[in-house]
Amino acid sequence: MATIIITGANRGIGLELARQYAEEGHEVIRAMRGVDQAEPVFGTTMTLDVTDAESVAKFAAALDDKPVDLLVNNAGISGPSPQSALEMDFAGFAQVLDANVLGPLRVTQALLPNLRKADGAKIAVVSSRMGSMAIPQSGHVAYRASKAAVNKVFQCLASELTGEGIAVTMLHPGWVRTDMGGPNADIDVATSAQGIRKVLAGLGMGNTGRFYAYNGEELAW
Questions:
Q1: Crossing angle of helices 103-116/53-63, nearest 10°?
Q2: Which residue range(s) make up the domain with 206?
Q3: Residue 156 maps to which CATH number?
Q4: 4, 7, 10, 198: most buried by Cβ count inside 10 Å?
Q5: Does 214 qualify as catalytic in the annotation?
Q6: What percent of the chain has pLDDT over 70?
């Protein structure tokens, strides 16, 4: 049985990932700052605001020296409107970067002592294909930029943790029917979560630092 921490696990992809891991018998710690949409409530629920350094520190302190096998940085926001390169809410842009880039790094750094206590720990961040430089599209500029940035940050993290045997990956969950993805998205949360779990099961030091879609496809940066 693994100990798994998932941020933003009160709804959507994070909640479904947590549910599937818990059904397999793993110890799941669901970190969240919003209203819990789980019915019934399951696993261990803990308050966490990834944009608040004090909240992150309290979360890590509450874990004490508990080994953590898998950390899934799923919490994030879509950002403001307007959000184009021609018209931008700059304060909103900064909030997106804080939540989607600095937040996952804050949490990961705070939990490194716990990850180091596990054998073959893994770290994932839920990114998006929308951040790929290979896709020359606009719209949702702050969100796209945040995902491009978090990919680079966690690629660097993978490199720096290689000698410690901790594997890292960046994940595109697909276009998912959630509050963020909307009702017209391609896939449901169960399909996305199942695919993500399969990718994470195959993650190791041989493929650390890579960017994968939920269906196992390796993506261009």
A1: 20
A2: 3-213
A3: 3.40.50.720
A4: 7
A5: no
A6: 96
